[in-house]
């Protein structure tokens, strides 16, 4: 090893979360280095959130326009797939990270390109692409922010095909004629929405009994209904037995004996931590494991190792990882300054409390699904005494004006002992922008009787809040 360099903080991985923690520690006056093996900006910028949403936006805008009388006639044609993909390429910065590298430079964070591995306590060894080695020593902490990767199931014949993961699904340069998607989670439904609209014949193979199993059941039902109307073949309760490449493409054999043939197959079957080759064994941790942390994002049992973002498996979402980065950054700075007492209590400045109680998520399908906090099933499993309050979104004036024949549903979960909202789910066109109202109500633990005074503007879809509260109050 050559070229040993010392920093206050060393961050392993420059995805959105690593970048944010580096920003916070640098702003607190701590010298900070980040190590990145691929592109600064991580999965989110190049193969996940940004390209997927750039692909989805024209699909959703067209679907919305088709529901507006006077406009629908002019948007009946197909999408211009070439222009949609070019728009995506632009938002993925053509898979170049110059902009983000420039930003790191502007905030005074040093970037080391290469594969980083922990190398004992407070040390990170970096192997650069041209084979050089650096050892970075952290005076205070090392932060692991190496994210996650797609998981492929073990299947006979997998080695005969080159399957798509979320990376290929978000960066493909043309629509396959026939696309099979295995998995009915968030990646599965968003990518089915995109590629069916761009001209592929999509078949979804879902082993459970519905889509989006982690959300309220009506969310998956409404999305499945709309995907089927868009022409996708959504099959639930089916499992893949094997895959094989033949003259006519990829043949997927199902456990019930049926089969489907396609040009491409996307496995949208979940994520694994990128920790198999980061030197965890040198610090007594298990390679390949998710890193378990406390609410300040410090790895259990350590006083110098933090883990933020996907890699700690608390919530696999960019905005929540960036929230963890803000909390961890504040905790790292406070501990470095030897602040005697950190605010690690619930909702304190050094506790990522919202990870447990107030996580928002938007699934950008048509209809959109927007949820915050707990589902009914989660609230009950947590032992809360709750009531689910339901309302048909199509009965809200603003929804009718938004789209002809509006279809949607809303559910609010009320904690009956505290009389506060602990969860909300909205499904319908345009509901994504409604979500922050729910997040504020949940994180703020606003009493229902005070929410009654939060008057939604007429005639917006947000009047659903009034209808939910009226329904609750009877
Ligand atoms: C298709 C798809 C769509 C998504 N859409 C959304 C969305 O709309 N909204 C949302 O909130 N979330 C979305 N997500 C989730 C989101 O992408 C992740 O939660 C987010 O990227 C996590 O950020 P991170 O910084 O923890 O990890 P990552 O973004 O994975 O970044 C980790 C970085 O660490 C680097 N790295 C790894 N190992 C090493 C090493 N040994 N040395 C050096 N560098 C290393 C990687 O190269 C990478 O740049 C989506 C995910 C997918 C797959
Ligand atoms: N809009 C967004 O916020 C957004 C978009 C995409 C992804 N994400 C995040 O990225 C993460 C990954 O998404 P994902 O959809 O890959 O994971 P997921 O865990 O949401 O869904 C994976 C699905 O695949 C199924 N599955 C697993 N193994 C299987 C197998 N062998 N055969 C058939 N089905 C199998 C699971 O039952 C599950 O329903 C999620 O945590 C998600 O929140 C967020």
From TrEMBL:
Boundaries of every Pyridine nucleotide-disulphide oxidoreductase dimerisation domain copy: 359-465
Domain FAD/NAD(P)-binding: 7-321
Cofactor(s) the protein needs: FAD
Binding site for NAD(+): 183-190, 270
Top-level taxon of origin: Bacteria
InterPro entries: Class-I_Pyr_Nuc-Dis_Oxidored, FAD/NAD-bd_sf, FAD/NAD-binding_dom, FAD/NAD-linked_Rdtase_dimer_sf, Pyr_nuc-diS_OxRdtase, Pyr_nucl-diS_OxRdtase_dimer
Membership in a protein family: Belongs to the class-I pyridine nucleotide-disulfide oxidoreductase family.
Annotated residues for binding of FAD: 53, 116, 146-148, 310
A GO biological-process term: 2-oxoglutarate metabolic process
Disulphide-bridged cysteine pairs: 44-49
Protein name in UniProt: NAD(P)/FAD-dependent oxidoreductase
Cofactor: how bound: Binds 1 FAD per subunit.
GO molecular function: dihydrolipoyl dehydrogenase (NADH) activity; flavin adenine dinucleotide binding
Keyword Heme listed: no
Keywords of this entry: FAD, Flavoprotein, NAD, Nucleotide-binding
């Amino acid at each position: 090893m050559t070229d040993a360099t010392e920093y206050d903080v060393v961050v392993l991985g420059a995805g959105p979360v690593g970048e944010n923690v580096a920003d916070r520690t640098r702003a607190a006056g701590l010298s900070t280095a980040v190590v990145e093996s691929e592109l600064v900006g991580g999965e989110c910028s190049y193969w996940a959130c940004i390209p997927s949403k750039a692909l989805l936006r024209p699909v959703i805008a067209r679907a919305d326009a088709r529901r507006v009388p006077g406009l629908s006639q002019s948007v009946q044609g197909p999408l211009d797939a070439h222009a949609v993909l070019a728009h995506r390429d632009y938002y993925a910065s053509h898979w170049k990270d110059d902009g983000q590298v420039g930003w790191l430079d502007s905030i005074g964070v040093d970037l080391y390109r290469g594969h980083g591995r922990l190398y004992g306590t407070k040390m990170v060894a970096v192997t650069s692409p041209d084979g050089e080695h650096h050892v970075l020593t952290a005076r205070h902490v090392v932060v692991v922010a190496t994210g996650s990767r797609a998981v492929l199931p073990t299947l006979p014949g997998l080695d005969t095909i080159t399957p798509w993961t979320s990376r290929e699904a978000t960066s493909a340069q043309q629509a396959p004629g026939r696309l099979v998607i295995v998995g009915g989670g968030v990646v599965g439904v968003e990518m089915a929405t995109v590629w069916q609209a761009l001209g592929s014949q999509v078949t979804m193979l879902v082993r459970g009994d519905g889509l989006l199993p982690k959300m309220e059941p009506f969310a998956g039902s409404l999305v499945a209904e709309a995907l089927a109307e868009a022409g996708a073949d959504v099959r639930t309760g089916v499992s893949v037995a094997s895959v094989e490449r033949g003259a006519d493409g990829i043949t997927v054999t199902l456990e019930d004996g049926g089969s489907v043939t396609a040009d491409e197959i996307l496995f949208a079957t979940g994520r694994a931590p990128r920790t198999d080759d980061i030197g965890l064994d040198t610090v007594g941790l298990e390679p390949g494991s998710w890193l378990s942390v406390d609410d300040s994002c410090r790895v259990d049992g350590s006083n110098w190792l933090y883990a933020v973002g996907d890699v700690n498996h608390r919530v696999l979402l960019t905005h929540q990882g960036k929230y963890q980065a803000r909390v961890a950054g504040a905790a790292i700075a406070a501990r470095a300054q030897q602040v005697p007492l950190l605010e690690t209590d619930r909702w304190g400045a050094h506790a990522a409390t919202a990870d447990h109680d107030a996580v928002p998520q938007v699934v950008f399908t048509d209809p959109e699904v927007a949820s915050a906090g707990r589902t009914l099933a989660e609230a009950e499993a947590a032992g809360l005494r709750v009531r689910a309050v339901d309302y048909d979104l199509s009965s809200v004036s603003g929804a009718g004006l938004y789209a002809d024949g509006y279809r949607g549903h809303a559910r609010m979960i009320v904690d009956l002992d505290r009389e506060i909202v602990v969860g909300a789910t909205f499904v319908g066109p345009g509901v994504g922008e409604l979500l922050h109202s729910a997040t504020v109500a949940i994180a703020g633990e606003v009493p229902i009787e005070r929410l009654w005074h939060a008057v939604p503007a007429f005639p917006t879809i947000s009047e659903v809040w009034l209808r939910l509260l009226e329904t609750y109050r009877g």
